[in-house]
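Archive entry. Fields below.
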Amino acid sequence: MPEQPGVELVCPAGTLPALHAAVDNGADAVYLGLRDGLNARNFPGLNFSLADARRGIDYAHDRHVRVFVALNVYPQPSRWPAATAAVDAAADAGADAVILADPGLLAYAAERHPGLNRHLSVQASASNWRALEFYQQRFGIRRAVLPRVLSLAQVRRVIERVSMEIEVFGFGSLCIMVEGRCALSAHVTGESPNTHGVCSPAHAVRWQEQPTGRQARLNGVLIDEFAPREPAGYPTLCKGRFEALGAIMHALEEPASLSVLDLLPQLLAAGVRAIKVEGRQRSPAYVAQVTRALRVALDSCRRDPGNYRPPAGCGAALERLAEGRTHTLGAYSRPWQ
Amino acid sequence: MKLSVGPLLYHWSRPEVFAFYRELASQPVDCVYLGEVVCSKRRELGHAEWAAIARELTAAGKEVIVSTLALMEAESELAALARVVADAVTIEANDMAAVQLAGGRPFVIGPHLNVYNGKTLRLLAALGARRWVAPLELDPPAVGALLAERPEGLESEVFAYGRMPLAFSARCFSARVRRRNKDDCGFVCSEDHDGLTLYTREREPLFALNGIQVQSAQVRNLIGVVDELRDSGVEVVRLSPHSTAAVPFAAVIEAFAAAIRGEGGAQCPPNALPGGYCSGLMREEQRG
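PREDICTED_STRUCTURE:
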């Protein structure tokens, strides 16, 4: 059987050591954000100074790995000059693409840097081919990252209808809302991915020990309570336990990571051109392990998709790293919906 | 300043929908948004019935606009959107697919399109946008800042009353909390006339589930800042429909109409929903 066409493994880099880890362990491309509050992982201690970005890009390019710069918040008027300056800086530093969500910023990038590849961020919420066609015709996007809301069959149909490259999420924390269309965090903390590049930000988190257990609060709101010895997860709003119809439950979603390890042959056959790993907030060790496992799995799948089984060790390695130590196919699987 | 009634976000029965719009025809609102924004499986009324409601409202002197789905995934949803656009009505676009299809004709930028700066506003105005409904995340000062950069002739509208639509998912939460799959939902969302309140484990009302949509449990009520909104350049205030079990909606309309006429101290009747009123996002309220 012939090899599948090239599929890029796109890995996260929150810091220079994480970028090295991704490059050294088999990433085809890495994505990073600048330290300017203009990307969707605007966390303390994370992201690149311009000098580090240049160093990272040189390191990656020397090893034939591409680097994408994520600039995927929606800048408001006061931040507009900083946002356009960041696009200029990414172009100047030699990035292989910018990952953008804001239509105005996409237009700016297309006008000022026509030679710089534009990727449509998942934050743009483009979940159908008509919307993708809009972004392609208006801003000449080269690639689009699909929101984590489509079933596998829907991913397949989108790819049949569009001519840009399609990138999908393969592993990492699972947003269960349409990316770019979630203001839960804004409601409770005043800061959201669209406005501040954060969700359920750490500065709003308070842990409180109570006789009944450990409480996780976000801006004072009780997101969950964990019994003694029960593993306590980060209080992301959509993964809390709440009361609905008189019962306490994970009303929106359980803590679990997305993993497409079992779905790689179908995704490749559908024509997906890149598999993205979530996790710019993760450690270099995490990035190294996830990158290595997915590299092995992708290579195995490309060699012989018909007989692909998740390689021994890969599944277990990813399971250990998964949120709640469990994984899900998310919306790729209809019953999840 | 004009008063609008936003699209009905909940799954009400046919008699309830007919009754709501029949009463609306005689109430002091300038503009009515029809159509389904949340879930394409909800089809209590047929196309001809919605068209009849639109005619009735138009005859009563209301401007009628058809709102489109916020999350579009299926081919059938795109086909339905194409039919709405072909009807030559003005649409409220809640996804870029609608902007792409409406191409060049007048349309309203719905609250679920992400417009956060002047460049985006001008770009969409050039494509035919004639009104912009601000995203729910933007508070009145942020809306004002953006309006300073708007192109000439573009109206602006603010969501001023109702449980705030905060998020959309592929998953149906109304079905999930009743242990059902979306594909076998049984339309259980019709049991929740104003959404299903989600409480914290301390019984604090936090969110409301409405199919694939998550709303605030609190009802945003901006009646106290209508003058400020007008001063910052907002031309239309939007009221989002609620059932009579929650609030006498006609009285809400009357109160906002009075506030717009400049009658100081106009107040909405109390809302029976567990979250009560808030003036914006939750963090702006007093928190312990």
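CURATOR_NOTE: Chain A touches chain B through 73 residues (CB under 8 Å).
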